[in-house]
Design goal:
about 350 residues; alpha/beta; Rossmann fold; 2 domains; seven-stranded mixed sheet; about 20% strand; globular; disordered N terminus; binds adenosine-5'-diphosphate; binds the ligand CC(C)(COP(=O)(O)O)[C@@H](O)C(=O)NCCC(=O)O
Length: about 350
C-alpha cells in the first residue's frame, strides 16, 4: 500500500504514484508530477502523507514492546480496557518516530549553538497532544510518556495538562465564562506561554498550576514542578490554537511555537459523544460518588437521567468547542491519529512538508 497525501480526514489523492512502498511516498506542495519528473501544474496538495494502520504498524521495525499488559491496564485507570495490539501497532511506531525526532532535534540545537559559538544547552523536547474532550488525549499522552521513558534517548518524560491554566471559577464567573470551560478564552494563555518559554529556555525548575476535576476548579496551593526533563508532553484541548485577534496584533507567540512535535487525536463527533457519555456513566460510580466532588449530585442519577445530563453538557459545551475551536486546529499538527469505533486508530497522517 502506497501512502497517500491528504488533508487529514479528507481524502484528496495520492502524490506517491511511484509505488515505492511504505515510507517511499512523498508529499509535495506541487503536483501532480509528470513522467519526466517535472511538476506539471502548481496545485497545492496536502503537506501530509497518510498511512492506513497496517502500513504504519510495519514501521515499528521489530522493536520489542516493553510495556506489559499490566502496565497498559494501569494506564487505562478506570477507563475502557486499552487493547495491547493497539499499543503495539500504533503507539510503538509513534514512540519510535519520536525518538528519531528527539535525537535529530538535539543535533540541530547543537548546530545552532556551535554557529553562535555557545555551548549547547539541554532543552526539553516538547510534544503537544490536542483533540476534543473525551477523544483520548490523556490516554494517548500517558501511553507516550510510558513508552518514551523506555527509550535511552529520553529517560525523563514529564506530562503537563493545560487544565491547570484554566482561569479559576471565580474569574470565569466574573467574565461570564463558566459555561464555556475549555473554550480558548477560558484559559490564561499568557501564563501557559510563559511556562513553556521558561521550560524551553532550559530553566532548572518551572512550576505549573493544578486543576482538580474533583472540585472543578484550580487548586490555589498546588503546583507541578518541571525540572528540565528530556521530553515534556503538553496535553490539552487548545494547544494548537493560534493567537486570538488582540494577541495577533501584538505579534504574540502561539503555544505551538514551543512544540517540537504535535499529535492531534481525531474521530467523528458522534463517536466522541458516545465516549463522553460512557465515561460520564462510569464516573457516577467513582469520582462523582466522592463526597468532595463538585458533581456529587450526579452520583444518584439513574442511567437515563445520567445519559440525558451528559448529552446536555456535550451538546451545550464540548461539541460546539470541538467544532468551532478545536478541530479547526487539526491541520497544524505534525501527526493526526484518526480513530474509529472502540478507539481503534484507522489512519495516521504525518506531516512531511
Ligand atoms: N486507546 C484507547 N483504548 C480504549 N479506551 C480509550 C483509549 N483512549 C481513550 N479511551 C477511553 O476513552 C475515554 C476518554 O479518554 P481520555 O483519555 O480521558 O480523553 P480526553 O483526555 O481526551 O478527555 C476514557 O474513558 C478512556 O478510558
Ligand atoms: C477541564 C477541561 C476544560 C479540559 O481541559 P484541558 O486539560 O484539555 O485544557 C474539560 O475536561 C472540561 O472539564 N470541560 C468542561 C465541560 C463542563 O463544564 O463540564
Amino acid at each position: 500500500m502506497v501512502p497517500k497525501t491528504t488533508v487529514p480526514g479528507r481524502a484528496l489523492r495520492s502524490a506517491a504514484r511511484g509505488g515505492r512502498g511504505v515510507g517511499g511516498g512523498h508529499a509535495t506542495a506541487y503536483g501532480p508530477v509528470g513522467k519526466n519528473g517535472r511538476v506539471t501544474n502548481a496545485v497545492l496538495t496536502s503537506p501530509y502523507v497518510e498511512l492506513v494502520r497496517d502500513d504504519w504498524a510495519r514501521l515499528r521495525e521489530n522493536q520489542p514492546l516493553t510495556l506489559t499488559a499490566a502496565d497498559v491496564a494501569r494506564l487505562a485507570g478506570l477507563g475502557e480496557r486499552i487493547d495491547l495490539t493497539e499499543v503495539e501497532q500504533i503507539y510503538l511506531p509513534l514512540s519510535r518516530l519520536l525518538t528519531f525526532y528527539v535525537a535529530a532535534t538535539k543535533r540541530l540545537n547543537g548546530v545552532t549553538a556551535s554557529f553562535l559559538g555557545e555551548r549547547p544547552e539541554k532543552t526539553p523536547f516538547v510534544i503537544g497532544v490536542a483533540g476534543s474532550v473525551a477523544v483520548g488525549k490523556s490516554t494517548t499522552a500517558r501511553l507516550l510518556q510510558e513508552m518514551l521513558r523506555r527509550w535511552p534517548e529520553s529517560p525523563r518524560v514529564d506530562l503537563v495538562t493545560t487544565d491547570g491554566f484554566l482561569l479559576p471559577n471565580a474569574e470565569l464567573v466574573r467574565r461570564n465564562l463558566l459555561q464555556r470551560k475549555g473554550f480558548p478564552e477560558s484559559y490564561d494563555r499568557a501564563a501557559l506561554i510563559r511556562f513553556l518559554a521558561e521550560v524551553k529556555s532550559g530553566a532548572p525548575e518551572v512550576q505549573a498550576p493544578v486543576y482538580s476535576h474533583l472540585v472543578y476548579d484550580i487548586v490555589p496551593a498546588e503546583s507541578v514542578v518541571v525540572r528540565r526533563p528530556d521530553v515534556l508532553i503538553v496535553e490539552g484541548l487548545n494547544v494548537l490554537q493560534p493567537p486570538n485577534g488582540t494577541a495577533r496584533r501584538r505579534n504574540a507567540l502561539s503555544i505551538s511555537d514551543f512544540f517540537d512535535f504535535s499529535v492531534y487525536v481525531d474521530a467523528d463527533a458522534e463517536l466522541i459523544e458516545q465516549w463522553y457519555v460512557e465515561r460520564f456513566l462510569r464516573l457516577r460510580q467513582t469520582a462523582f460518588a466522592n463526597p468532595d466532588s463538585y458533581f456529587r449530585r450526579y452520583a444518584a442519577l439513574s442511567d437515563d437521567e445520567a445519559r440525558a445530563t451528559a448529552l446536555d453538557i456535550w451538546q451545550r459545551i464540548n461539541r460546539p468547542n470541538l467544532l468551532h475551536n478545536v478541530r479547526p486546529t487539526r491541520s497544524r499538527a505534525t501527526l493526526v491519529l484518526t480513530k474509529g469505533p472502540h478507539h481503534r486508530v484507522e489512519r495516521i497522517s504525518l506531516r512531511k512538508l
